[in-house]
Amino acid sequence: MMQVHYVMYEGIKFPSAYNSEHSLSFTHNEFQVRDDDIFNVTYPKSGTVWMTEILSLIRSRGCPGWNRTVLNSDRVPWFSTRLGLESALSYLPPRLLTCHLPRHIFPKSFSSSSAKVIYTLRDPRDVVVSSYYFSKMCNSYEDPTSFEQFLRDFLNGELPHGSWFEHVRGWMEMKDKENFFFITYEELKQDLHSSVRRLCRFLGQDLDDDAISSVVQNASFMSMRENPMCNSILLPTDIMDQTKGQFLRKGICGDWENHFTVAQSETFDRIYWERMQGLNVTFPWDQH
Ligand code: PPS
Q: Is 60 exceeded by the pLDDT of residue 3?
């Protein structure tokens, strides 16, 4: 098995294949946020790449040309990584940027800016499942020993990028701010058209219905699977071993039900409700 290395920054593990202490510390302390920046922020496996496609398509007013010819990492750079930082710094504004950073290590200069953040969340049980398969195919993550152990690590906040609970709690503190918009993977799945309309309103982009329909069509799971600019097929095998799975794996809600035992589900629920107390937000997965 290949040896996997992580960079520690502020007590959180990041894959060293893309991150360095310098890129993380520069992003946190020195990165100059612009008022016209738009940030796509997520905990991993929550719909990050889906949102990069939606945001680029909104920017192109539904025309798919940009999405089909330019890699998503160039359209919406992962600005806290080594390479992403370089492309963010040379990006002609207004910038579209993405990251998995928790709120407390997001650029300090954000606080005094009016830059917009779109925060996408997903049922954490589906996040665990998606992450489990991703860790098997992605060589910059440790191979999971078992689903049981992986779930335990997730609940203990020991996976790369830190605790889901802390990520969500940290970002959701901004929920009443004008420059913050949150949406769930489940809402995108349920009604992408009205989700895109809401996003456009937040971004101040007035797309007509035809343009919105084109965004929806080009950001569908099937269109994205066929687009090499976002389906990860072009990534070198030493980063992602495509024989072990697909980045765009299933694209559904509720796959956790095929993976969790009754005992795992009960443990999960107990910890979830403990950790989410006082947040005062009801997510789609809380209602069942
Ligand atoms: S990463 O590695 O953190 O950037 O991954 P991320 O993009 O956040 O999450 C990957 C999961 O999102 C699913 N996905 C989609 N689902 C439905 N529709 C569309 N268009 C779509 N695009 C991406 C992708 O399939 C991963 O989920 P799973 O459950 O593994 O299929």
A: yes
